[in-house]
């Protein structure tokens, strides 16, 4: 098993909000690996706009963006994506310049929208790991989104019906969003880990890395 003192470890965790990207990033950071949260970087870039509306934190970013059918959502969705693109470009430029750097990158659920150029750079610089939720776990992701909203770029997938509440629209449209993204995540990733297999409370950072190494060896 590699340790922080050996060759650079470069992992980018991708998947839907609530799949466990932040949890495992923090686990690896606790084992000594440098880690970056894309959400935190984007929040910092949006800070002046957030402060103007009295918002703070990742939940504040979600509140600032608003519900997908709000009048300002489309504009703020575009602003969020622009800052995500800028953040990813900076992170990858740093890795390209400093070949010996290790990094665990906690990406956003919307990473697949940053453009093909950046996605190819991401694949070249890092091992991309997709944390995939099963169909059975989709309801849990929906409940997490409704109960503890994180920024989500719907990109037109939120399609309310007449008389439907926003929560009902989310419940109906979110599975379609997950399905559409799954294909993109799978195409981007070097390996896929099912979220269900990661819920074993005994799994530590070393076990998580071993699972990734096993998966990537098989795919070569």
Give a topology summary.
Elements: E1 10-14, H1 21-30, E2 35-37, H2 38-52, H3 57-65, H4 73-97, E3 103-106, H5 116-125, E4 127-132, H6 138-147, H7 166-188, E5 191-194, H8 205-219
Parallel strand pairs: 1-3, 1-4, 2-3, 4-5
Helix pairs in contact: 2-3, 2-4, 4-5, 6-7
Which parts are unreliable, with pLDDT below 50 for 5 consecutive residues or more?
Answer: 1-5
Structural class: alpha/beta
The overall average pLDDT, rounded, is 90
Biggest sheet strand line-up = 2-3-1-4-5
Q: Tell me what portion of residues adopts beta-strand conformation.
A: 5-15%
Residue share in helices?
40-55%
End-to-end Cα distance: 19 Å
Order of helices and strands: EHEHHHEHEHHEH
**What's the alpha carbon Rg, rounded to whole Å?**
17 Å
Number of strands: 5
Rough shape?
A: globular
In short:
The protein is 53% helix and 10% strand. The protein has helices at residues 21-30, 38-52, 57-65, 73-97, 116-125, 138-147, 166-188, 205-219; strands at 10-14, 35-37, 103-106, 127-132, 191-194. Residues 1-5 have low confidence and may be disordered.
Which labels suit this protein?
220 residues, alpha/beta, five-stranded parallel β-sheet, 5 strands, disordered N terminus
Structural summary, described in words:
53% of the residues lie in helices and 10% in strands. It is of the alpha/beta class and 220 residues long. Strands 2-3-1-4-5 form a 5-stranded parallel sheet, with helices on both faces. Helix 6 packs across helix 7 (166-188). The radius of gyration is 17 Å and the shape is globular. The two termini are 19 Å apart.
């Amino acid at each position: 098993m590699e340790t922080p003192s050996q060759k650079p470890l470069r992992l980018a965790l991708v998947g839907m909000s609530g799949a466990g990207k932040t949890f495992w990033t923090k686990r690896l950071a606790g084992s000594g690996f440098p880690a970056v949260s894309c959400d935190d970087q984007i929040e910092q870039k949006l800070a002046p706009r957030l402060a103007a509306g009295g918002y703070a934190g990742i939940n504040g970013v979600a509140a600032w963006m608003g519900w997908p059918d709000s009048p300002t959502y489309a504009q703020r969705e575009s602003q969020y994506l622009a800052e995500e693109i800028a953040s990813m470009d900076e992170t990858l430029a740093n890795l390209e310049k400093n070949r010996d750097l290790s990094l665990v990158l906690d990406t956003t659920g919307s990473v697949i929208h940053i453009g093909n150029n950046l996605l190819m750079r991401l694949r070249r610089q890092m091992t991309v790991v997709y944390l995939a939720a099963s169909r059975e776990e989709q309801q849990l992701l929906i409940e997490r989104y409704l109960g503890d909203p994180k920024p989500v770029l719907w990109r037109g997938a939120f399609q309310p019906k007449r008389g439907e509440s926003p929560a009902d629209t989310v419940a109906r449209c979110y599975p379609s969003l997950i399905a559409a993204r799954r294909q993109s995540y799978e195409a981007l990733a070097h390996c896929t880990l099912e979220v269900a297999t990661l819920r074993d409370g005994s799994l530590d950072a070393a076990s998580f890395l071993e699972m990734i190494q096993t998966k990537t060896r098989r795919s070569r």
